[in-house]
Automatic annotation (TrEMBL):
Keywords, in A-Z order: Hydrolase, Purine metabolism
Upper lineage: Bacteria, Bacillati, Actinomycetota, Actinomycetes, Streptosporangiales
Lipid metabolism is among the record's keywords: no
Catalytic activity: allantoate + H2O = (S)-ureidoglycolate + urea
Similarity comment: Belongs to the allantoicase family.
UniProt name for this protein: Probable allantoicase
Coiled-coil regions, chain positions: none
Length: 315
């Protein structure tokens, strides 16, 4: 898959995405488009609407036109690429699709979104059945919603909208916030190892339900240690560090340390090497920490973290 797929999925349900409207969902519900994980399938599983699909499927169209679904991005941002996945749709996939995007402040209704100024970010393209289709997007605008169009009808399992988060942080003026939250614009820019799961998982909202929803490295067989670098949502002063090893029973790190940086090159200590316990949320207060734009999290020697929270105030 292209490089853009390493960026966060702005539309994912677990980061607040929602399929707010669709013109038709006769066979399978529109909400499936933004579910986490790969689509599932079990042959000869029939319900009142026919074969059960883990995706969005419309009826056979008998009149001119096409089907569409509008997705509110859980994290508004600059879209770098889109993946349209027709997994398991073999005789009922749409032959063509396109994607549009718009930016609307506040909390627009489906009717207001339908009347919005939509910009085409993926032109009408050919699709195959039971396949992932990746399309790069060259557009520097910030968007809040996307509209998936399929021509003329059929089924699509997943829509992934990868990009760079661009939130409105003005709502936190005068307040503290999680400077390391993916939803606030933080992102992992470097990582020593991501053998089992992606490092950006530690910045995701909510609690990890199992260890795959955190970051886990391979077992080290040398004298080094694993680490990741987080670019914070904004330059800020960190007051509280939360290191969560929930679900990591036998593969939690033995210890952790944190360093901060303004430019990502010169580093200063934030948290000295500190012992960790398995399956435990840890909280450490920082006193008089300098402002930082980057934080390096070192774990010793390897293992995994469920979440990293860096609570503080913008500088």
């Amino acid at each position: 898959m292209p490089d853009f797929t390493t960026l966060p999925d702005l539309a994912l349900r677990t980061v607040g995405g929602s399929v707010v409207a669709a013109n038709d969902e006769s066979f399978a519900e529109k909400e499936s488009l933004i579910r986490p994980g790969r689509p599932g399938f079990k042959a000869e599983t029939f319900g009142n609407k026919g074969q059960v699909y883990d995706g969005w499927e419309t009826r056979r169209r008998r009149e001119p036109g096409h089907d569409w679904a509008i997705v509110r991005l859980g994290m508004p941002g600059v879209i770098r690429g889109v993946v349209i996945d027709t997994a398991w749709f073999k005789g009922n996939y749409p032959p063509h699709a396109s994607v549009e995007a718009c930016a609307m402040d506040g909390y627009p209704s489906p009717a207001e979104l339908a009347a919005a100024d939509w910009v085409q970010i993926v032109p009408k393209v050919d699709l195959k059945g039971d396949a992932e289709h990746a399309f790069e997007v060259s557009d520097e605008h910030r968007y809040t919603h996307v509209r998936l169009n399929m021509f003329p009808d059929g089924g699509i399992a997943r829509l992934r909208v990868h990009g760079e988060v661009r939130p409105d942080l003005s709502v936190y003026e005068g307040l503290g916030l999680d400077l390391a939250a993916l939803a606030n614009g933080a992102v992992v820019t470097a990582c020593s190892n991501e053998f089992y799961s992606a490092p950006n998982n530690v910045l995701a909202p909510g609690l990890a339900r199992h260890q795959a929803e955190g970051w886990e490295t391979a077992r080290r067989r040398d004298e080094g240690n694993d680490w990741l670098v987080i670019r914070l949502a904004t330059l800020g002063v960190i007051r509280l560090v939360e290191i969560d090893t929930t679900n990591l029973l036998f593969n939690a790190p033995g210890a952790v340390s944190l360093k901060g940086s303004v430019d990502g090159e010169t580093w200063f200590e934030l948290l000295p090497t500190t012992r960790l316990q398995p399956d435990t949320p840890h909280r450490f207060r920082l006193e008089d920490a300098p402002a930082a734009a980057y934080v390096r999290v070192d774990i010793y020697p390897d293992g995994g973290l469920a979440r990293v929270r860096l609570l503080g105030t913008p500088a």
